[in-house]
Amino acid sequence: MKHNHQLYLYSFLDHFRLLKKSYPAKIMFVAFVGTHVPLLTLLLSFLISNSYSLEMAVRVLVIALLATLAGTAATLYAIRHLLAPVILTSATLQDYLNTKTLPELPTDFADEAGTLMADTSQTLHKLDELIHHISNYDDLTGLPNRDLFRDRLQQTLSQPQNKQRLIAIFLLSIDDFTDLSHALEHKTLNLLLRAVAQRLTTCVGQTDVLTSLSRNEFAIARTEIPSFESVIKLSQLLLNTLAKPFSIEGSSIRITVSIGITINELNQSNGVDRLLQQANIALYQTKQHRSQYQFYSPEMNAQLQERLTLENELYGALERNEIVVYYQPLIDLHTRQVTAVEALIRWQHPTWGLVSPAQFIPIAEANGLIVPIGEWVLRTACAQNRAWQLAGLSAIRISVNLSARQFEQPNLLQVVSQILQETGLEASYLELEVTESLLMVDVERSVKTLKQLRELGIWLALDDFGTGYSSLNYLKRFPFNMLKIDRSFVHDVMSNPDSAAVTDAIIALAKSLRLNITAEGVETQEQLEYLEMRGCDEGQGFYFSPAVPAEKIIQILQQSSQQRETIAA
Length: 569
What we know:
By secondary structure, the chain is an alpha/beta fold. Helix content is 54%, strand content 16%. The chain has 22 helices and 16 strands. The protein has helices spanning 8-13, 23-47, 54-82, 84-99, 112-136, 146-157, 177-183, 186-203, 228-243, 272-288, 298-314, 357-367, 370-390, 404-408, 412-423, 436-439, 443-455, 472-475, 487-491, 497-512, 525-534, 550-568, and strands at 166-174, 209-214, 217-222, 246-248, 251-253, 257-265, 293-295, 323-332, 338-349, 353-355, 397-401, 430-435, 459-465, 482-485, 516-519, 538-539. Helix 4 (84-99) packs parallel to helix 5 (112-136), helix 8 packs antiparallel against helix 9 (228-243) and helix 13 packs parallel to helix 15.
C-alpha cells in the first residue's frame, strides 16, 4: 500500500507496537528524543575528551540531565495540549459514528488545527442534514416518506388537545401506472411525478401532512375535519386538480387517479400503519368498482379477506382438478336447433361447492392465473367438441371466451394452433369470443391478432356488444363473424324502450355489416319472439338451457341431431 511521502515518519513509527494505537504517543516519543539530543551530545563529548575532571564532568552532566528532564516535561505537557484539537476532532468523529451526536467544535481559529475543527463540524452538520433528508424524504418528489409521515402524524396527535380528534387519510394512486411507465421515457415520467407532487402541495392546508409512499402512490393526512363534506370537497379538489393536463417537455399528458379514504381515530390499536391499510383497502375497492373514490368500511375489510381466501384457494385449483367446464347451447331462432355451445368455466370447490365465476375470474385476471386456466379451458372445450363429433353427433361450433391476459400473450396464435392440432378439431368449429374493451387497449395489435386467427379459419365473436366503445369506425376494421348482444339489453327489451332501441340498432348494424347476431340472456317466450321478429340469428339463455356439465349437454345435442335428421328426411 502506497503512502504519501510526507507520511514516511508517521508510517515508520507505526511499526512500533507501543506507538501503533496512539498518535499522541508518537508525538511524545519524537519530542522526547528531540529534547535529549543535546544531553546525549554532551555526554558523548565528555566520554571522548580528557579536558575535564571527573568531578566537573559529573556536575555538568547532572545539571544538564535535570535541565533536560525539566525541559522535556514542559515540552511534552505543551505538546499534549497542542494536540487537543486533533484528539477532540477524532473523538467527535467517533461519537458521531457511534451515536450520531453532532459536534460542538470551536470554529473561530484560523490555523490548520482550527480549520480542521471548523471543517469537521461543518461537514458533519451537512452530512447529518443529508442523511436526515435521504432517510425522511422521497428523493424524486422531495415529499416526506412513510417514516416521516408517521412521525409527524404521531407528534401532531400526541398533543393532549388532539387525543380524541378524528383523522382522515387519503391514499391516491395514479391509474394504469404500469402502462404509463412503459409509454413514457424515464426522464419524462420523473418530471411528471414531480409535477403531480407539486400540484398536490397546492391542495393541502398548513396542518395537512402530505407524503410520497411509492412512485405512483401519495397519502394525505387531514387532522382538522370540520365536517364530512369537507372530506368530500378535498377529494373533488384532488381529482379536479390532477385531471388537468400536464405540460411536460412540450407534450400534454393526462392522468387519472383513484382515491381511498378512511376516517378514524389515531390510537394505540389504530396507528398510522393501520389507517394506511384501511385507506389501501378503500383504494382497492375504488379500482375494482372503477369509481373515483371510496370510503373504508369494516365490510370492505371482510370482502378483502374473502378475496384473499379465494385467491389462496385458487392457486392449485387447476392441478387439483377443481376447475371444470360447463356448456350452454346456442339455438338457431328459426329452426330451434343447436348451432353451437359456449364453454363456460366453473370452480367446483370441495368445501364451498360451485364458486361463481363472477367471484374468481377477476382474481384470476389480476394475478395471471387466467392464462393457464384459460388455455386449459380452450384445450378441454376443443377436445370435447371433437369427442362429440367422433361420437356421431352433428358438427357444431364450440365458443370459448378469451380473457384480456390471454389476448395479450405474444404466443396466442401458436397456442391456439397447437391445441387445434393436438385435439384434431377443425378450426371452423372453434369460435373465440373477445370483448370491446379488450380490443381498444392497442387497436393496431388487436386487428393484427384477430386477422391471424381468422386466417386459421376460426370464427370470431365480439361479446357484450353495446356495453363498451361500440365505435363503427373501429368495428369495421375487426374481422368478426358474430356480434353478441349483451344480456342487459335483452333482459328488459320488452319493458324498456331504450333497451329495445339499442337491440334493434345492433341487429340492423350486424346485418348491414353481414355479421351473424347472437342474443345472450334469453329467458322468456316474449323475448324470443321479439328477437326472432327482428331477425336475430341465434339466442342463448335459461329459456333454452342453463350452462350444464358435458354429460347433460350431450342429451340436448342428441335431441338436436335427431330433429335435424328428421327434417332432412
